[in-house]
Fold this protein.
Amino acid sequence: MIGWRWRRILSGVIVHVFVSEYLVGGACAGARVSASMRREGLAMLRAVAVDIARLPGTVVVTTLEPGLALPDPIQTIIVESAAEEAKWFARLIHDVDHVLVIAPETDGLLAERCRLVRASQAVSWNCTPEAIELCGDKLRLSHFLQALGIPTPRTHLVDFAQEPQLDAGPIVLKPLDGAGSCLTFLVRNRDEFRQAAAEYELAGQTDHCLWQPYLVGRALSMGLNISHDGRHVEFLPIAEQRLSDDGRFQYRGGLIPAVLSDASREAIHELVVRVCRAIDGLAGYVGMDLVLTPQGEPILIEINPRLTTSYVGYRRVCPKLLPCDWLPHLFETSHLLKPSEETLEKLEFTPEC
């Protein structure tokens, strides 16, 4: 820590930003994490840390597990264990000006880390813990949105002691608070239900499983930049999601911007505006997953109250601009610099971009 402080004092910079990525930052040392989630975590960390480091007068510091590296000038602290990462997290949030936390909502991880940041003197670039807890609980969020008349799938807890009735069509099983398509299954028959049940039992998550009706349509996502007071919401281009066709919905990247009619784009924007007005505490980068039905109706599937893997694509469409919007004193001018969807060239991207 002494060496990092020494460089900080001599540099004479204005803003110090700690970017904490949970999956590859050392917090999961020795834990079982899927290779796809690790790739996405590293891709997000590398992309956003590089972009923030390009901002004038900014130094970025992060933690990393052994064997990984980030380009200069990002300051990296290699940690050997989850306990060491926790100590560094607790120290750094009190030693920098701004903090961006990238972590799954699972088991309240993201909300708890953001709560610690808000108890420090640093400025949080995340949603409030309360907004994270609402969005991270898919059952609670579904009930909240339905009560407001916002289109979203009906969501139910799974009772694995009873096999579901599939006469009305396939269903999707997903964790109550999962991320990254972990333990997500398309269930079309009893055999697939039993296979999913075995996976949930192996993971010890049988009491945290939800089911939703499977919706036929186009999988879309939309990134948002939201000012810290919640009064300014900037739409990023709507993206087409590429998901695996093996019934596991693993994220394979996407196309920005999605090819949509003006009517569909307007309907999606109207839906997103309603959601943003309904939920207090959304701030910074927020991602929304939707399905556009064959009838042209957008259905909100999930809200990701954090940086999402789509950022690696958005940064190529809007280079050097995204992190500016999370700095309160830069937001008013930077949001005017984004190109419109109509003028953008189509960009195919993968989580590794």
Q: What stands out?
A: The first helix runs from residue 2 to 11. Confidence is low (pLDDT under 50) at residues 1-11, 329-337. The first strand starts at residue 15 and ends at 21.
